[in-house]
Design goal:
Elements: E1 3-8, H1 22-27, E2 28-32, E3 38-39, E4 41-45, E5 52-57, E6 61-64, H2 76-79, E7 84-86, E8 96-97, E9 109-110, E10 115-116, H3 120-125, E11 133-139, H4 146-162, E12 166-170, E13 186-192, H5 203-210, E14 214-218, H6 223-226, E15 232-233, H7 239-251, H8 253-273, H9 277-288, E16 293-298, H10 307-331
Parallel strand pairs: 1-2, 1-4, 3-5, 4-6, 6-7, 7-8, 11-12, 11-13, 13-14, 14-15
Antiparallel strand pairs: 5-16, 9-10
Keywords: Glycosyltransferase, Transferase
GO cellular component, one term: membrane
Pfam families: Glyco_transf_10
């Protein structure tokens, strides 16, 4: 009999269809936002919109954070509902695991249709495509976090210095309907996480790895632990050094790409098989498979009395840090 897992999210459409392969489906029935019922494991990804009542094995309530510490609001009472918490944000939960890299991939995702054009089998079997361009970046014009501001500043420096040698996608640049179109033709991809926290990385690096594009990466300082040899590091706090890194890649693109390709292929395997939400699910099922069932009720974060003031405090803290970052850049003449 297959194990039953309920994955609760704040989204009205499924996030993880692309992650579910045939071997996983033989062992696990994964339902997103299942209504009630009996489950071996229940996982809340980032948050819930409404309360949930369900039956789950003892030890089988898991919370997985999806946002960086500056954004995610998790009252202690909310986290106390869970048996285990995966989050890079410091907290007082007795069974907290300080890793956070289980976000859904955006490779092949269409935002307007809220669907993916690659299923798991097609994604796993995807061959190395012909690489005709050197560097791409997919970005936005968000600016409310310090790393947002640093990213915007650095991208503008790249645009002024390198011009059409880099292809810029996203707001306010060229629109791309499917993110894979901004990855598959490229040897390298510029990746900027919204934070630089150990153990925290997202689809921003996962997507280029899926598309066989070497990540030029600013984010988790321990990223080599997850993808050894596959990543070129970029320092957001040293724009001149970052420019030098990109210039070197552009001047020796094919040579560097071929040197990194074996590690990139291994990184892709690790991403799909070891660092995905499905791997976490299998590990957690092994931990609770013999535990008895229990009836539980889960309340969303916003149901707790301290949520609003925590959210306000978080916004004020973000605002002050971003203003301080902008002031520091002005003082340096950047």
């Amino acid at each position: 009999m297959r194990a039953r897992v309920n994955l609760l999210t704040r989204h009205a459409y499924p996030l993880y269809t692309q992650h579910i392969g045939a071997q996983f489906s033989e062992k696990v029935e994964l339902v997103e936002n299942g209504d009630g019922g009996d489950w071996d494991l229940a996982i809340v990804f980032e948050g819930m919109s409404i309360p949930a009542a369900l039956t789950v094995r003892e030890g089988g309530l898991v919370f997985v954070s999806g946002e960086p510490p500056e954004i995610g609001i998790y009252p202690p009472g909310f986290l106390a509902q869970f048996d285990r918490v995966y989050s890079a944000k410091p907290g007082r939960h007795p069974d907290a695991v300080r890793i956070q890299h289980f976000n859904n991939w955006h490779f092949g995702y269409n935002g307007s249709e809220q669907s993916y054009r690659y299923d798991h089998a097609a994604l796993r079997a995807l061959p190395i495509p012909e690489k005709t361009r050197d560097i791409s970046v997919v970005t936005s014009n968000l600016s409310y976090l310090p790393n947002h501001f640093k990213r915007l500043h650095l991208i503008e420096r790249f645009r002024q210095r390198f011009g059409e040698r880099i292809d810029f996608f996203g707001r306010p640049h060229r629109f791309v309907e499917y993110k894979d179109e901004a990855l598959l033709p490229y040897r390298f991809h510029l990746c900027f996480e919204n934070s630089g926290v150990p153990g925290l990385w997202t689809e921003k690096i996962a997507d280029p790895i899926l598309g066989y594009a070497v990540p030029i990466y600013a984010g988790a300082p321990d990223i080599e632990k997850f993808f050894p040899g596959a990543v070129i590091r970029l320092d957001l706090d040293d724009p001149a050094a970052a420019e030098a890194v990109v210039a070197n890649v552009l001047d020796h693109a094919e040579e560097i790409y071929q040197t990194r390709l074996p590690a990139l292929i291994e990184a892709r395997r690790r991403l799909i098989e070891e660092h995905d939400l499905t791997a976490l699910i299998l590990a957690e099922l092994g931990r609770v498979q013999d535990a008895p069932p229990r009836a539980v009720r889960l309340a969303p974060p916003q149901a707790f009395a301290d949520f609003n003031w925590r959210e306000l405090g978080s916004r004020m803290h973000r605002r002050m840090r971003t203003l301080a970052t902008r002031a520091a850049y002005r003082l340096r003449g950047w």
